[in-house]
């Protein structure tokens, strides 16, 4: 794997970094690459309150903040930025202000790689708004100064429109870190882990492929 100068991961919610990116993050950390994770919200409007519920709507932001910190520690992220936006309102933020925030992060950190969602193919309005701002911020840079952008896409039928992922990472050596990050986000993942963990232990091929493989699309600005 290529050693990056600096990686900037930008997602709107705690746990967005975990499901499809955490093994890749852990792999880059092991390779000596510094990682900054900018998380826009605390996911305070998340539908899950634990199973059985152990959070309330009032306590959920504090719980998810601690879960985010714990997951970041499990992955070796030592620069976690919590940007303070409100969950499910990112789409209503001023576009230019959002782009400026992303531009300032990129200017400060000078990353060689940015990881975010693929605009148009990431389902949730907060995902889409975040992705659009990141892509536009990079697009406005001088071409020679732009970082590479790897995007996560998962909307129905996305491969029919944008093709298969061009980056496929086997993160098997870092699967335990990925599991630890998922367990850190327990308010959101407990129901999922109850289903997945027995499948991992039994060697279920589909479940293990999901755990051990992470896919990205390199964004083309042409």
From TrEMBL:
Lineage top rank: taxon: Bacteria
InterPro entries given in the database record: BshB2, GlcNAc_PI_deacetylase-related, LmbE-like_dom_sf
Obligatory cofactor(s): Zn(2+)
Database matches in Pfam families: PIG-L (PF02585)
GO molecular function terms listed in the Swiss-Prot or TrEMBL record: hydrolase activity, acting on carbon-nitrogen (but not peptide) bonds, in linear amides
Family matches, as PANTHER family: N-ACETYL-ALPHA-D-GLUCOSAMINYL L-MALATE DEACETYLASE 2-RELATED, N-ACETYLGLUCOSAMINYL-PHOSPHATIDYLINOSITOL DE-N-ACETYLASE-RELATED
Annotated NCBIfam families: thiol_BshB2 (TIGR04000)
Protein name per UniProt: Bacillithiol biosynthesis deacetylase BshB2
Higher taxonomy: Bacteria, Bacillati, Bacillota, Bacilli, Bacillales
Name of the encoding gene: bshB2
